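Subject: Protein record for review, amino acid sequence with backbone structure tokens
Category: Structural biology, sequence-to-fold work with a learned token vocabulary.
Format: Residues in single-letter code; tokens as whole numbers, each standing for a residue.
Body of memo: The sequence and its backbone structure tokens, given next.
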Amino acid sequence: MDDTADGSGEAAPVKVDCGIIVVTYNSAGHIGKLLEGLPAATPGLRIRCLVVDNNSHDETVSILRSRDDVTVVEAGANLGYAGAINMGRSLIGPCSATLILNPDLLLESGAVVELYRALGQANVGVAVPMLLNLGGELYPSIRREPSLTRAFGDAVFGAHWASKPGWLSETVRDRCAYQAAHHVAWAGGAALLIAEDCDDAVGEWDEERFFLYSEETDFAVRARRQGYRICYVPTARAYHEDGGSGRSPALAALMAVNRVRYYEKYHGRLASALFRAVVALHYALRSARPEQRMVLRTVARRSLWSRLPHGDRRSTPQATQHETPART
């Protein structure tokens, strides 16, 4: 590895263009394909890739140990997405940008380069790609800031009124909005490239509130409050197998509850109570399905929130590979 001395007698890693952090949990069916596509997605960039494993019980770690192109960090517990990202941030080493990736992604050739170029624009701190499903269909990943009217519109109309005005929907469904680069409030967290100065300004992800879901919403609003913009880059494309880490009624309830937790973090008691009521309405209108009734009960009864999936206590991470050489 091309290291330099840091004055302490120990080798210090070189600064790379892009440090890549992938969070895995029972991701044996996906992680190999993602890693194999990284060279084509990052031509000309110096990269360093680190995978933080959240205590997988399948063959994920064995697959990672067999590779010489990543640093594997075994968290020793399930820290959740934000917690694992924080661990990765502390270990990735110096880099001009940090790429956060879900393991169930496939990146198109040159995708990371396109994101990296977008960070060169004035005040852009985060760049996000176009997401498609594995069949090549557009996934509506662009989001507006959560609000009472948007939560109400999504509760009542769902995805059936795709052209409803922006004040009635958090999700941007107009396909024309996905054709050109522009600034957005936030986007799905499957792939985010974060500039070094933005990462430093925002700091750690909020792992105390958000084990999974809404952590990317929170990071985006904190970045915007620091004066940074989030840029959607349609020339960077990634294919996402949504739910590759698994789905369950408990996770559906966690997603709903974390929407409320996010809103409560930035709004007063009355507005937050109204927002929670609208989220409950969303599931009440769909309560013919048993899983939706379970989510409704959980949102309505705050005493149940502590039973939802949450992060385990951190242990000392174990790096099971030497640090990956910086690759040009």
